[in-house]
Amino acid sequence: MKVDVIVFECREGSLLQTEAVVTQKKQKVKEQFHLFLTKKRLKATLQRNLILDAFVDLDRPTHMDELYLILRSKHSHIGHATVYRALRLFAAAGIAREFSLGDGLTRYELAGHGKRHDYLVCSDCGTVTEFDNSSIEERQLAVARSMGFTVEALKIELRGVCSRCLTQSG
Predict the structure, then answer these.
(1) Of 158, 59, 155, 63, nearest to 115 (Cα)?
(2) In this structure, what CATH number is given to the domain that contains residue 10?
(3) How far is CA 168 from CA 125, 128, 164, in A?
(4) 122 is in an annotated binding site
(5) Does residue 89 sit in the same domain as residue 131?
(6) The predicted structure's pLDDT at residue 113
């Protein structure tokens, strides 16, 4: 019984610590965006703040239409063009990274210093899942070193069918 209490307290402590880190990250992103807006003499509108909150809370790569649908379900006054312009502003402010996976959609993710960008891309539904595997990275860097190559960026993109689509199809 005492073990259960200790395990619960550890989980609770970890959860609180994780929430604090997320809140701190969100605050830092908001500050960076508002500094950018001030420098550009732009307004920090309610819509921009709501879009920024949704983007940071999502915490994974997304495209404009997906973010628009998420926002539209809670804030019907936010338009498609407003989401598009906000995402472009986030990229200009350096808080979002814009990228494409060759499928015609421009995606956005929170910009991170030194963050690798490895993705699983479902060819059926288009879902993009970010993953991290340090042993893959170590092997890639070893190959590069052996060939006298200095790596500036790493990106892995694996295309296939996600488990949800596999379940639905069979």
Answers:
(1) 155
(2) 1.10.10.10
(3) 11, 18, 6
(4) yes
(5) no
(6) 45
Q: At which of 94, 115, 136 does a domain end? A: 115
Note the residue count of the chain.
170
The reply to whether 10 sits in an annotated binding site is no
Q: Is 125 annotated for ligand binding? A: yes
Do residue 141 and residue 74 come from a single domain?
no
Average pLDDT over residues 15-44: 80
Assign 6 a pLDDT band (cuts: 50, 70, 90). Answer: very low
Distance from C-alpha of 29 to C-alpha of 36, rounded to nearest angstrom: 11
| pLDDT score of 10 | 33
User: pLDDT digit string (tens) for 50-64?
Assistant: 999 999 998 788 899
Residue 108, C-beta contacts closer than 8 angstroms, at least 6 positions apart: 55, 61, 62, 63, 64, 67, 87, 90, 91, 96, 97, 98, 99
User: What are 93's two structure tokens?
Assistant: 């402010």
Q: Is the pLDDT of residue 102 over 60?
A: yes
pLDDT, average across residues 116-127: 82
> Does residue 94 sit in the same domain as residue 46?
yes
